[in-house]
Amino acid sequence: MEISRRALLGASVLAGAAGPGLMRAGQRGAKGPTRLEVSRKRLLLRHTWTISRNSSDFKDNVLVRLERDGIVGWGEAAPNVRYNQSAEQTIAAIEKAKSVIEAGDWLHYVDLREQWERAISNQSCACAALDIAILDWVGRKLNVPLYRLFGLDESKVPVTTFSIGIDTPDVIKEKVKEARDFPVLKIKVGTENDAQIVAAVREATNRPLRVDANEGWRDKEQALKKIQWLQKMGVELIEQPLPAAMIEETAWLKERVDIPIIADEAVKGVGDIPKLAGAYDGINIKLMKAGGIQEAMRMIHVARALGLKIMLGCMIESSVAIAAAAHISPLVDYADLDGNLLISNDPFTGVGVKNGKLILNDQPGLGVSERPGS
Ligand SMILES: [Mg+2]
After folding, report:
1. Of 14, 82, 139, 248, most Cβ neighbours within 10 A?
2. CA 213, CA 235: separation in Å to the nearest integer?
3. What is the pLDDT of residues 103-119, one digit of tens each?
4. Cα(262) to centroid of ligand 1, in Å?
């Protein structure tokens, strides 16, 4: 299945952005130097973050700063070991694309992407950082928020889940209390103590729960028993119960459970979606796996065409990448965009949260600003 990226993006841009006000806004900004700068930023986690695979107290992300005509656009990469990514490799990949990007016309971001993404292999998060930075710059240049550029209604941003990492029952209960403003929680499981974890959450709250096993269960019979138990505990969906490669086993599971099964590690880009349609009820799209906003939009349209539910998720990210996802979230069913809420030193401001719903402002581009002193 090949769907033209230009057709999909062109249609949404035309639907949302045409108008005389936009043309006038496009004139703003003095001429100035073109610069692409890349830097590493260590994000500190509020709590040690544990999932079925690993545990961490910080994440080293990569920021991209693009400047032209006196306007600055920001992008972010969150390298993830699951996909063989690191901050070093991400920075090296961005440097490879630098000359093409600095020479290109950023307003032609669809065409331009086809040129620069050839320079980057196997670091989808580097593509995401560049794509986000270019689109942030375009939004600022045209003086419109990205959701408006795409023709989307910011009031339709879905409620985001707040994630509770794997921990001892006492700490889990404490985390559930801290997440009191979020009407839906996402619980990480995939260890020997799953029943204890979910029971601890249930003791602390009767809110709806979504559960993510991060490929932590290794056989279909075990996964079936766990999901049947989770259904009784009021869990409304299960994410990636089995390893990504176990597509047939997941299809077997899907026939036997009553709650949606969502693919996460099994789906990176648009090409992965068709083969998953019979095994999963939905997919979790992340900008870092997809390689940015443009690719995520393609994935959303392809998943819809195949009748799949869509979750928009994140890694541990600052407000730059979270805002980028939030701007396209009116298109999806479920949001899991809490990465910036899990860190204590977000270097940017601009994404609010109220009653568990991300609030986008009316500032151009991503609508984020550097936090003074960070
Ligand atoms: Mg997941």
Report:
1. 139
2. 13
3. 999 999 999 999 999 99
4. 9
